[in-house]
Amino acid sequence: MARTESTGSTWRYRWARRQNERRLRLFRSAEWSWRRRDDELRRLRTLAEQCHGSAAAGDGLLLELAPEEIVLRVVPAAQLVEVRHTAVLPAPDLTVGAPTGRLRHRLPDGVRVTDAGMAVITNRRLVLLGGRGRRDWAYGRISGLAHDAQSPVTLIQALDRRRTSGVLLPADAAAEFRFVLTLAFADAIEQREAVVAQLDELIAEHAQERPSRPSIATPGQARLSALIPGGRRTAVVAAALAVLVPLALVNAGPSDPTRQESAVAATPAPAAATGATKAPRAANSPAPGRAGPTSERRCGAPANPMGYDFCGGEKVREPDPGVCDHFDCVPGFWEGRGYLVQCENGKFSRAGGSPRACGLHGGVRRTVSG
């Protein structure tokens, strides 16, 4: 027998079930992303304490170590790359970078492979033992260093070399290689404890961002607007049209039947019947020859009734509650504390302005305006 009780018809139970399934799905996605980042930070924290290397780790390598030089990491299948153009790289620092997402095994523009071999990180230098010879980068001579955010390439500028060069690594080994290289720099200036303290701070901050389990929706919370295709926004559109259509007819005047016919023809009445959510924009349609905010003037943004676009303007810091109905939002979207941005993989985040915005989605691509 259908359950009705004090909450009404069974549609309320169906609404509650769909809401709870949706909330649980979003929660599990956000929690999975959170746990992956937490595991990564704790793994790096352990590595920062245990990665001390040894001189014996260099046994079997065609590399003569200096006195008190120890090997921290050996990465096979590395390649030597050189940059065709002149570029100024940022100075090396001890910052633990945010996750860059999945790296693609491709070369950035202007970078070419010139040799292949293995990369060796010691406490004094980075060495590539290639088929054509050996390339050394002593830490004391490095003036610039940059890790590419899209590919597993690390570029290096040295004071004793005119041309910028670096290494291309296997994609699955790049993250650990970059962190061990940061530890090697820290060891060279006796600042490893600063890296450990930075990781402790990142772990503490991340623990505060853990997603909380969503509340349970009950049948009694269902609203009649849930029965209307398009929900509450469609009901608002229909009410607005009920007011605007008579006004348009009155403004046309009885002495001008042509204008009356134009007003009736321009009224998007079928949109209310089908649940279209763009009808309010029709009431404030732009002047002739000027692009409308939700169609022509989106500059590549998805169609949406809020008028959000990529054309530049005011940043969207308080998105419409229904924004994720029209945009592909990242997990944990509403936990963001910035402005609306699009990530490189096409998803949308509310963490614009944060250095960790779109960290798991390839970085920030562009800002949404509204």
From TrEMBL:
Domain of life the protein comes from: Bacteria
Biased composition (Low complexity): 263-283
Region described as Disordered: spans on this chain: 255-303
Protein name in UniProt: DUF3761 domain-containing protein
Organism of origin: Micromonospora radicis
